Amino acid sequence: MTSPLLNRLYSSGGTEIIHPTLEITDGSVRHFLTNGYEDLEVGLESGLLARFIACSISVALPKRGSDGKQDLKFALCNIDGSVSGFLRAALRERREINLVYREYISTDLSYPSKILRYKVKSGSVTATEAQIVAGYFNLLETLWLRYNYTGDFAPGMRYQ
């Protein structure tokens, strides 16, 4: 259930500002990014404080639908290259990259007003920009029945 403040902000704006943020991690390295010109110190849902580094981020949230393709697409410009280098190496090595999109309202930075979690599916990195596609759940790479019925798992399945 969304708050009346969020409903008003989404429909007609107001004096408050919505701050979009991205957390990109491979499990050992974390990058906290926010769109804008100033860094942002906010509270996470875990109760910890985090400092989000300002950079240029373009976010296209997924449309609602039943076609199974609810992808988040984002592009970020990282002048110092630390995030771009991290993404390039992680994509090349096929590491699992998780992404958390959070929105904060400028009047209350203690807790996110919206949290979306994604897994990175694909991406490309150039010298000036990283473009990433992430999704809620990658159904195509999921085993059905959750088991591989191989000769080791089910010896009776093998023809002799």
Automatic annotation (TrEMBL):
Top-level taxon of the source organism: Bacteria
Name of this protein: ArsR family transcriptional regulator
